[in-house]
Amino acid sequence: MTEARTETPAFTFDGGGGIDDVLAPVRKAAETVTGQLPFVRSMTRRVLDHFENNDLDVCDEVAVVAADVFTSVERHTADRAMMRRVPHVLAWGGEIPEPGDFTTKDLMGTPVLLVRHKDSSVRAFVNACAHRGAQVAQGCGHAARFTCPYHAWSYDLGGRLATVPGRRMFDGVDLAGLGLRPLPVSEQAGLIVVALDESVELRDFLGDARDDLASFGFERYTHARTVTLELRANWKFAVDVNFEGYHFPFLHKDTLAPIVTNNSVFDVFGAHCRWAFPFRNIDELRSVPEHDWPERFSGSVVYGIFPSCVLVESPVSTLMLRIYPGDRPGSCVVHMVGGALAPIVSDDDRLLAQAGFDGAAAVLHDEDFPAAEACQRGVEHGVGQVILGRSEPLVQHLHRQWDAALQV
Predict the structure, then answer these.
(1) Residue 166 predicted with pLDDT over 70
(2) What gap in Å lies between CA 340 and CA 92, rounded to an integer?
């Protein structure tokens, strides 16, 4: 696994120290969090029932996935083609809250520029100058125009070509018809959704998950740090690790296991899904009246937004994973994006965002993603199938959705 690059860091990832040190400020802040999430009480009741019976939400049957789903060049080609036919969540709306705010993203190799226009709508463009293709923006910030660093062609917030140095040297070219190439874009439930093909329908992409997602207030979330990783694993393995707790006592015995349990619950929203696993101390709520329960779920709530965006929500921290196929079946790119639930305006805000990101990064970077790479080596060298048990229902769900999307 290699760390390819780090973009616009607000703080530095420090893997030193134990997970308790990393998460201590998160736990402290969680005690004071308020804000109504409509599903929390029902979810908490379900989890407490599982605590009492020492069980979890499961599915009816075992599923088997052929190894070539992770190794075949044909499947890899089909996966990449499918990715170009579907919408993708690229950002929280709060990353560009004001007109003129912008951020840059990578979507399966395509450089994307997201801009908050003067009318407060979001615009998306291929981040490439109409002259020679160089990127016109880097990182994130605020701008009235975007100027290519190569030859200084500039563009307004609507992507229209504004200035061309030495314009007379381009006589005969319809400069008025040139500009940044727009991409389909929609802001739904505070999330920015983009597609690579203009024919892709974005309307109601989030479907039945929309109301749940809207309750988080993503339009207020702030970007803190992006780390891009290149994994030696198929992209589906990198997604799978986020949606089952069967491995908690083993892979995470010294990190997550002392803090959380796999008395988990799941829900499906069409192609999307939600999985929640609790902190161990959630059992203390048995003796607390429901109207005094915390407004946020005491644990982690993980959303899978089709095809490959993972949203990890804790009481006071947030993480977005955007996972795409690499240049071969056994590789993928993971954009690991840490954020804050509100603008970062103080050192305490910054430290809390750092703790949330470091805690997630320590587990994913040092444990989950190396496991995904180990699985890839196995299927490339003789393991003929991957077995998904009844306690891995959402991994089964994800594979069904991916397989179905290939048939469209």
Answers:
(1) yes
(2) 10
Task: Please report the beta strands in 74-166, taking only residues with DSSP state E, as ranges in sequence order.
Answer: 88-92, 101-107, 110-116, 122-126, 140-142, 145-147, 154-156, 161-163
pLDDT tens digits for 353-393? 888 898 888 899 999 999 999 999 999 999 999 999 999 99
Strand partners, 113: 104, 125
Residue-level pLDDT at 2: 54
What pLDDT, on the 0 to 100 scale, is given for residue 20?
53
Q: How many residues does the chain have?
A: 408
Q: Does residue 223 contact residue 6 with C-beta atoms inside 8 Å?
A: no
Element spanning 41, H or E: helix 40-53
State the pLDDT at residue 25. Answer: 47
Contacts of 17 (CB under 8 A, 6+ apart): none
Query: In whole angstroms, what is the distance from residue 298 CA to residue 282 CA?
Result: 6
Residue 96 one-letter amino acid: I
DSSP 8-state assignment for residue 164: -
> Are residues 386 and 67 in contact, defined by beta-carbon separation less than 8 angstroms?
yes
* pTM for this prediction: 0.91
| Residues linked to residue 226 through DSSP beta bridges, in sequence order | 7, 337
Interatomic CA distance for residues 149 and 34, integer angstroms:
45
260 forms beta bridges with: 279
Q: What is the mean pLDDT of the chain?
A: 91
Exposed, middle or buried: residue 78 (CB in 10 Å: 0-12, 13-18, 19+)?
Answer: middle
Query: Of 345, 275, 326, 305, which Cα lies nearest the Cα of 47?
Result: 275
- Beta-carbon contacts of 310 under 8 Å, excluding residues fewer than 6 positions away, are 239, 242, 302, 303, 304, 319, 320, 321, 323
